[in-house]
Write a structure and sequence with these properties.
mainly alpha, 3 helices
Length: 119
């Protein structure tokens, strides 16, 4: 059925048309259900295009979910490793920063003083 042909009520809810009664369903003489213990019938069912499309969709969804999960786990692990490495080297980094500042400050102050004198 074309979605444009679906009748809606004033709230936008689809209205059921041409309802089928339970008696009509019980009288339906459709094909018998597939024997799901028969591997040949199962194979035939799985080769149908609609089933193949469903399998493709499930495969794609699982691949995306797996990639997302791996990415999440790696982000967490990298974050943990970086935090641990930063904590372990924090005192050494502080020492190095302080040493570089102490070495650079006299020259920086002298340059700033010279620039201030020129103005």
């Amino acid at each position: 059925m074309d979605p444009k042909q679906i009748k809606l009520d004033e709230h936008g809810i689809p209205v059921l048309q041409n309802a089928v009664s339970a008696d009509e369903l019980s009288n339906d003489t459709g094909p018998p259900p597939a024997d799901l213990t028969d591997h040949e019938q199962i194979g035939e069912l799985l080769r149908e295009e609609t089933i193949q499309q469903v399998l493709n969709d499930i495969t794609e969804d699982l691949q995306k979910l797996l990639a997302w999960k791996i990415e999440s786990l790696l982000k967490e692990e990298f974050s943990r490793l970086i935090s641990a490495a930063t904590e372990q080297s924090a005192s050494k980094m502080s020492e190095d920063i302080r040493t570089h500042l102490q070495l650079a400050l006299p020259d920086l102050l002298a340059r700033i003083a010279k620039q201030a004198q020129r103005k």
